[in-house]
Write a sequence for this structure.
């Protein structure tokens, strides 16, 4: 296996990129703070300019790279694989420096916990410790499925090598179809991680608001579990909001009840967005989840730290509401942009 030397223009940094690896992943494996968010071509945070050398662009039409970027010669590090030594231009960011350098690992499925009719928690185990920060994600690769899929961990970091993911089945989705319909306990996939910047920051002296929808439940469960057990946060209020289309989508009530620390420390709010799906079993809130957040916390929102994950329309609505309506500073808002 070849290694290529990647030099950063006008900076005293260089790193090795293994043949077949992307520039972004290699930089993070080397412990460098290469700017990024989604690591999958959607957000455009990892743009760079190629000064010298040759690269292979895995996804030339990635949505994170605009036509203007193409004209200016800007590329996405998460989609570029070097084929020789290169010199690139970008600006490193301290906040992107990984606390745990990402690794590629073989992971065996050892358990599946069904949560709703179309959402389950898939539990994998690796030979090495599961080192990550609550709220981070990993890139999963499935046999016969092209491209990596980013999923956030739902459990806590541990020495036993356990990596859990709450995942919602997507109609026509090749990745989720493999998980729900093909893989069996005892079979293995590849995990590459951890990645992500929307992790719990327990040193911040504000009450915590967690908001999720769909598979976005996974990282907020990890953060909730960590926050409820962290002695530094024993005097903080922790609010968790979760939204689904109908009553069958709401599994947070049982999840919280099954964990004593969560039951003792968490204020859990749930809502369904489609009243037509209510078969009479739901007597809770019927609204979009960001509307429930505003209704419950109102003008006090500016005094909280926010972590959220879910479908793009949900994250966009939350961001607009917090920043435009309630003037919450951007540095109090933490989410990873998945598309």
């Amino acid at each position: 296996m070849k290694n290529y030397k990647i030099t950063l223009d006008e900076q005293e940094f260089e790193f090795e990129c293994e043949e077949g690896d992307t520039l972004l992943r290699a930089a993070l494996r080397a412990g460098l703070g290469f700017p990024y968010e989604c690591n999958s071509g959607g957000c455009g945070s990892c743009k760079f300019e190629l000064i010298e050398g040759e690269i292979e662009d895995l996804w030339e039409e990635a949505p994170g790279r605009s036509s203007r970027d193409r004209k200016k010669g800007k590329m996405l590090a998460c989609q570029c694989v070097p084929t020789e030594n290169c010199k690139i231009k970008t600006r490193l960011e301290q906040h992107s420096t990984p606390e745990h350098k990402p690794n590629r690992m073989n992971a065996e499925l050892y358990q599946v916990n069904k949560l709703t009719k179309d959402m389950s928690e898939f539990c994998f185990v690796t030979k090495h410790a599961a080192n990550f920060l609550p709220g981070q994600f990993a890139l999963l690769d499935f046999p016969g499925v092209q491209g990596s899929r980013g999923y956030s961990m739902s459990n806590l970091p541990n020495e036993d090598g356990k990596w859990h993911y709450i995942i919602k089945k997507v109609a026509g989705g090749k990745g989720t179809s493999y998980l729900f319909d093909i893989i069996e306990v005892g079979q293995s996939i590849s995990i590459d991680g951890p990645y992500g910047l929307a992790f719990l920051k327990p040193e911040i002296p504000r009450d915590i608001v967690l908001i999720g929808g769909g598979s976005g439940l996974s990282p907020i469960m990890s953060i909730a579990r960590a926050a409820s057990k962290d002695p530094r946060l024993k005097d903080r209020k922790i609010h968790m909001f979760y939204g689904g289309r109908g009553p069958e989508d709401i599994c947070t009530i049982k999840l919280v009840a099954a964990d004593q620390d969560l039951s003792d420390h968490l204020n859990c709010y749930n809502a369904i967005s489609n009243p037509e799906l209510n078969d009479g079993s739901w007597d809770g809130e019927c609204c979009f989840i960001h509307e429930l957040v505003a209704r419950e916390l109102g003008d006090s929102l500016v005094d909280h730290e926010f972590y959220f994950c879910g479908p793009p329309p949900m994250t966009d609505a939350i961001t607009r509401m917090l920043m435009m309506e309630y003037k919450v500073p951007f540095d109090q808002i933490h989410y990873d942009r998945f598309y």
The mean pLDDT is 95. The two ends are 32 Å apart (CA to CA).
